Amino acid sequence: MNKKVPTRTVTVRNPQGLHARPADLLVRMASSFQSTISIGRDGEMVDCKSILSLLTLGAAQGTVLTISADGSDAEDAIDAITDLFESGFDETNEVSGAESAVDS
Fold this sequence. Notes:
Layout lengths: L6 E5 L8 H12 L4 E6 L2 E4 L3 H5 L8 E7 L3 H13 L5 H12 L1
Antiparallel strand pairs: 1-4, 2-3, 2-4
C-alpha cells in the first residue's frame, strides 16, 4: 500500500518572517489537525506542531518552504496552513499601522 503524502510549497510573505507570533499561530493551526505535519526547506524538515522547531528554520520574508502532511486530514491541514501563509499571518496591516504610529 503506497500512499502519496501531499506536499505544497509556500512563501513567507510577512515582513518580519516566521518569528514567534506567526510561529505560534502556525503551531495552533497545525495542532488542530490529527495529521503529522512537517515544514522546512533545503531538506531540513521540522515538526509543524513545535514552535521551537519552527523558529530554528530562520525563515525570513521571501523564504520558500515545503509543507507535507500525513494522515486522515492531511489535505485539509495543508490547505489551512497555505491560507495562513498567503494571508501573511495578518501582519501586513499591523506592521503598516505600527510604522505610521512611529512616524507621527
